[in-house]
Design goal:
The chain is 50% helix and 12% strand. It is of the alpha/beta class. The chain folds into 2 domains: 186 residues, NAD(P)-binding Rossmann-like Domain (Rossmann fold); 99 residues, Orthogonal Bundle (N-(1-d-carboxylethyl)-l-norvaline Dehydrogenase, domain 2), CATH 1.10.1040. Helix 9 links the parallel strand 7 and strand 8. The chain is globular. It has an 8-stranded mixed sheet, sandwiched between helices. Helix 1 crosses helix 9 and helix 2 packs across helix 4. The structure holds nicotinamide-adenine-dinucleotide. Nicotinamide-adenine-dinucleotide binds next to helix 2, helix 6 and strand 6.
């Protein structure tokens, strides 16, 4: 069988997708899969929360309709309170529950039918070990990490993570599924934080250290990032940028700078003091900013609209191979 035929066969084997958890990631991922033509069953352990998720599902669908056009998908999206039914009827499952190893393994252990059938089971974890999760839940032969980025219906990349025991076929199936859903799968080793969160937290560690040291304000950090290097990132990734700058310059700057950069292995005071005061960020009304004075919904809407515009532009320029597709 040719590589294309294998990929087609893998795609055809998945029609029914179970999504576990109806929070930020689960609800939007469910809509994304449904609009890509899959039959989706969305589950929450609380029937009340499951039904309450209708508002979020509608909001995501409305946004995509407004910005990408109406869905002509033949896929359906059902709310299913019975985990046994989701387990028995899914070709692929994506868990999107709390970022706690014990809670994830406890839930995954219950997917007996999927494990027996060799269904594709995926975890949306941002940072937890896929090897540990698979071993803790008896899913060594089926579990694959599928780290979506928020908002999952817009951000193209999904980091595909194989655990130490994951068979290559499961990784191929996850890769084919993401391509079919219009995503850009990127393979990554099973290291804490995978690729993206390692990079992002390296930057956040430095940002927090500068606030702790009084180098600058939190606002100054956002201004510098948003209005300098962030603007060129979609066109030029960090590795490309190093080539552009010239590697000898990168080396000489690093020789001078690296000893001065943050290397703390525990969270900075700028974070812990705020948390001790109950200032957890946007949800509580205060974090680094006073959100009671800002329109949080408008900020999120701006984020999502600029992602859509940016992807459209990059696709028009032919520099992005396959991006969010209007529904099939
Ligand atoms: N929010 C992000 O930016 C983001 C990005 C990428 C990946 N993730 C990952 O996705 C997963 C979900 O994150 P989220 O932001 O959607 O969280 P969330 O808090 O918005 O939603 C979590 C969902 O899981 C359910 N839940 C919680 N504990 C459970 C349990 N023990 N059993 C069954 N259901 C349970 C909750 O009812 C809720 O529906 C996490 O692993 C997270 O690390 C989050």
């Amino acid at each position: 069988m040719s590589a294309t035929a294998t990929s087609e066969a893998l795609k055809d084997s998945i029609r029914n997708i179970g999504v576990l958890g109806t929070g930020q990631m689960g609800a939007a991922a469910a809509v994304m899969f449904q609009r890509a033509g899959f039959h989706v069953k969305l589950w929450n352990r609380s029937e009340e929360k499951l039904h309450a998720s209708k508002t979020a599902l509608q909001a995501v669908d409305d946004f995509l309709t407004r910005h990408l056009g109406p869905s002509h998908s033949k896929g359906e999206l059902l709310l299913e309170p019975d985990l046994g039914i989701v387990d028995a009827t899914s070709d692929a499952l994506l868990e999107c529950v709390a970022e706690e190893m014990a809670q994830k393994t406890e839930l995954l252990r219950r997917l007996h039918g999927s494990r027996e059938r060799g269904a594709l089971i995926m975890s949306c974890t941002s940072a937890l070990s896929i090897t540990e999760m698979a071993r803790g839940s008896g899913l060594e032969q089926v579990l694959v990490g599928a780290h979506f980025w928020n908002p999952p219906h817009l951000i193209p990349v999904v980091e595909i993570v194989a655990g130490a025991d994951t068979p290559p076929r499961q990784v191929e199936r996850a890769t084919a599924l993401m391509q079919q859903a219009g995503k850009l799968p990127v393979h990554c080793a099973d290291v804490p934080g995978f690729i993206g969160n390692r990079l992002m937290h390296a930057m956040w560690r430095e940002a927090l250290a500068m606030v702790d040291a009084g180098v600058c304000s939190a606002e100054a950090i956002d201004q510098v990032v948003k209005w300098s290097f962030a603007l060129r990132l979609p066109a030029l990734g960090p590795m490309e940028n190093m080539d552009l700058v010239g590697l000898s310059l990168v080396e000489s700057v690093q020789r001078y700078l690296l000893p001065d950069l943050a290397a703390n292995t525990i969270p900075a005071k700028a974070l812990t003091t705020r948390l001790n005061n109950g200032d957890t960020g946007m949800k509580s009304g205060r974090g680094f900013y006073d959100w009671s004075m800002r329109d949080a919904a408008a900020v999120v809407a701006l984020r999502d609209q600029q992602i859509v515009r940016q992807l459209e532009f990059l696709r028009e320029q032919g520099v992005f191979p396959s991006t969010i597709k209007p529904s099939t």
